[in-house]
Amino acid sequence: MKRQIFIIYIIILSFLSMSAYSQQCENKKICRTPETEHLLEALIDMPQRGFMFGHHDDPMYGIGWRGVIGRSDVKSVCGAYPGVISFDLGHIELGQVKNLDGVLFDSIRIEAVAQYLRGGMVSLSWHLNNPLTGKDAWDVSDTTVVASILPGGKIHEDFLKRLDIIAGFIKSIRTPDGTAVPILFRPWHENTGSWFWWGEKCCTVQQYKNLWKMTYNRLKKNNVRNVLFAYSPGSEPNDSTEYLVRYPGDDIVDLIGFDTYQFDHQKYVDVMNKCLGILTEVGKAHHKAIAVTETGYVTIPDSTWWTKTLLPILIKYPICYVLVWRNANDRKDHFYAPYLGQVSANDFVKFYEDPHTLFVGDALNLY
Prior knowledge:
Helix content is about 40%, strand content about 15%. By secondary structure, the protein is an alpha/beta fold. The protein has one domain (about 35-360): TIM Barrel (Alpha-Beta Barrel), CATH 3.20.20. Strands 1-4-5-6-7-8-9-10 form an eight-stranded parallel β-barrel. A hairpin with a 2-residue loop joins β2 (about 60) and β3 (about 65). α9 (about 265-285) runs parallel beside α10. The longest helix has 26 residues, at about 1-25. It is globular and about 55 Å long. The chain starts with a helix and ends in a 9-residue tail after the last strand.
């Protein structure tokens, strides 16, 4: 009898605990998996140890190769995979099997799991086609696109199906034992410029915020629990107030960043310092992890760029990662990470060896 009473007690206790947990999830943000929660905590704490280096599409292709399992230009130079690898979901919303850069979505899923299993982090961006005109993400010929996909818009219901596809893909990124791989999702990026159809001149402040809210709520409705969200505008703000004008809100965003690239050395240094100063201020005030979500110097012609330009800037600020863009194998002179024999490769090894930089193999403790 005592055993039966004990079992009943445990069942009731479990039910109450689950009910409280469900209520908590219903009343607050997306109910995240333990691994995803731990990743967020690790990103916030990361600056105490250093910052992770990231590279877009790192295991997918590089200079002189494509689709070689286990290969990486970064790994070929320094012996380790980047701490962060990002991929893009553009064209998945169209039901295609490859993204806008010709990468199979099945391969993205496989490589995302591999990056998680080796201890690194995965980020996803989304250069989706203009849903109103059918042209690419850079088509800004119509300024009513965002309005058309928001609630009440003429293609709202159709666009929700596209968000459902995104939700399904993120949920499908699982290890062989069924663990959902934590994903940092970075949609609607570089919004403070006007080169994407969701950019500053293509929608109002409130429409942009509503776009984020709709995206967040749709993923929540789809019970996506392995996702964090990154906000990353793409032009230089004058101060923290300007940075936050289109900010979707603390209840949605987990990490804040910005995208910028070097064209002129001194201007790049000035912009990076200014933006990172603002980011540090906002991150502290809003308790958010901060990162340089996209950067780089195309073809890296400066042989000491990694340790003489990039590193001295980054070590002054509490960032959790910096990510450079891809090494295209189908476009001449379009690469942002070194490869064997590239003029900055030796300097990149010094960058890798610096105690501030973190790669796979550096006990990242993200999960």
